[in-house]
Amino acid sequence: MWSPPSARVVRELSPWTVNGGGVEACHRTAQGAPLKNMREELDIITAYENVGTYRGAADICGTTHKTVKRVVKRHASGGARPGREPRPANFEGVRGVVADAVASARGRVSAKRLLPRARAAGYVGSPRNFRRLVAAEKRAWRAERGHPRRPAVWSPGEHLVIDWGVVAGVNASGHRSIPASPGTRFRDSSAGDRAAI
């Protein structure tokens, strides 16, 4: 039965591994950004300042002398780290299909119903990511068209209002009041002898 090697054996097999490991062969990704994070670059700069040689700092940090030279020169010149260009999302190829479907359904379509159409159009991502796309497209569609709401404007006598409080010392629990003419606030419907408020 196989068991993972102990930490001591791993340290003896890979003595160049420091701070979670290093990369020896390639110091740049396919996108062109450095593989070293900011902490590792600061460790490289500190090691170079303490040792004074590229190869000595490379041995301490577990990387190559070329990487140390590149990091130290960029730091000495005051240059910023090269940034990685944002990678397009995996649903960008089907965004148009989703936008058309949302527009034709007037914002009332679910991601569950659209996923088979998107898969046929070439979408290979997860359903969760696709739900995010559909939600974003629906938000954009609604923001573009809005939800027109009619203002709440009532005319007297149009609505029934039930007051459950106390008015002028009189308990009005369950007492029905109907909006009356514009000159008075309420018309009393249950007791004819009470004055309108």
Question: What does this protein structure show overall?
Answer:
- This protein has 197 residues and is mostly helical.
- It folds into 3 domains: 14-77, no CATH class; 92-145; 150-197, no CATH class.
- 41% of the residues lie in helices and 8% in strands.
- It has 7 helices and 5 strands; from the N terminus they run αααααααβββββ.
- It has a 3-stranded antiparallel β-sheet with strand order 1-4-5, with no helix packed on it. Strands 2-3 form a two-stranded antiparallel sheet.
- The termini are far apart.
- 15% of the residues are buried.
- Residues 7-27 and 191-197 have low confidence and may be disordered.
How would you summarize what this structure contains?
The protein is mainly alpha-helical and 197 residues long.
Order of helices and strands: HHHHHHHEEEEE
Q: Kindly give the count of domains.
A: 3
Number of distinct beta strands: 5
Helix content: 40-55%
Largest pleated sheet = 3 strands, antiparallel
Q: Overall pLDDT, averaged?
A: 75
Which segments are poorly predicted (pLDDT under 50) over 5 or more consecutive residues?
A: 7-27, 191-197
Rg computed from alpha carbons, rounded to a whole number of angstroms: 36 Å
In terms of DSSP E residues, the strand content is: 5-15%
- Measure the end-to-end span: 90 Å
Q: How would the global form be characterised?
A: elongated
Q: Which helices and strands appear, and what pairs or packs with what?
A:
Layout: H1 7-13, H2 38-51, H3 54-61, H4 65-77, H5 95-104, H6 111-120, H7 127-145, E1 161-163, E2 166-167, E3 170-171, E4 175-179, E5 186-188
Antiparallel strand pairs: 1-4, 2-3, 4-5
Helix pairs in contact: 2-3, 2-4, 3-4, 5-7, 6-7
